[in-house]
Amino acid sequence: MNARCYMPKIGELTLTSVDEFDFRLLIKALGKGEKGSRTLTFAEASLLLEGFAKGKATRVQMASAMMLMRVRGETTEEVAGMVAGLRHTLDTGWGTLAVDIDWPVYAGKREQLPWLLLVAKLLASQGVRVMLHGDSQALPHRRHVESCLAAVNIACCTTPQSANAALLSDNIVYVCAGDLAPVLDECRQLHQELGLRSLIQTAARCINPTNAAISLRSYFHPGLDYLHQGICKILFAKGEYHTGSVAIFKGLQGETECNPRVSTTVTVVNGQANTIVVSSLSIPTLLEGFSGAKLGQAELSSDILALLWREQQPFSANKLTELMSRTMIEQALSSIQATLAALLLLLSRQSATIDSINATAITAAQAVSLSQQCWANRFSTTDNPLDQWRNKEWLCAV
Questions:
Q1: What pTM, to 2 d.p., does this model score?
Q2: Backbone torsions φ then ψ of 214, nearest 5 degrees
Q3: Of 31, 238, 301, 340, which is most buried with the most CB atoms under 10 A?
Q4: CB of 268 within 8 A of CB of 281?
Q5: DSSP helix, strand, coil percent of the chain (3-state; round to 5)
Q6: What pLDDT is recorded for position 10?
């Protein structure tokens, strides 16, 4: 019988400091043949990422690990460990920022504009602090949020200090992933050289650098929702995530935006006082039987976002209707309202948890209605329901 069948697996390693550890041991554990290889533990995956960030694990070692994990299929422990490793490399200044919603935007869209930016801008205009972060170079053939920031006057910042200034001024900021964790740029270069997707692309979405109370996760491929749930549970259990909620849903073309043409189920992993609770909420379909609107959207300028933001009557606005068909406008507005409804539901749940006296979370139907009101009254200083949210009054008033 082939002796390889009796090759023992490498057991769990004794981990030392990043500076002292021999990272060849992790590659050997991953690649010791068909019978002798094993997956990495949470702590080992975290150490590998930290080692690469500090230059202690080489490019060849990191690329080998990424390839071996990709071929076999990454485990939840490995991805969660990489998230923890990324978080350990962050400048501590990011954790001092006061942010309500952590909004990763890594997927981009194939042709549509990122309507989610108008949702984020609306929330920020009403006092909700939002931090967007993404990597426009990871999937350069897609249309990313970063390319549209200037059109809606959202600052792109590179340091915790400049991001804090933007949040104090506008309640919203965008940060490139490589400015949060420079090692992400190096990992992207590796997986582009290899021509393979890597677990780092999933891990980057899960950093939540400011420990915001609400953090969003979107996915496209089936099964990734369960992967994200598992990652959240591990990170809450390990104390890497602080108290808060992570909302996981299938995004429009994979981006962190709701698709109004289908109902959207949002899985919420809530970590509170050593307890992890998983629940769900649902945003109904807003465009039943809708068709069209796809053709021609790839040619739309990012200036459309500013036009749509300004126009109170978009269907009769000459400049807007010259550039967009009625079905395009309808789809854009529905994407905005569906995404905003999801955020309102999450905000209401958070407020109901914190201020439980006489406060209950709103229903999905109420959230859709409120999202329409919020959009219609986005320039009002007195009639927007989010004014009441800021004063913790709106839940009781619904």
A1: 0.92
A2: -120, 125
A3: 340
A4: yes
A5: 50, 10, 35
A6: 75
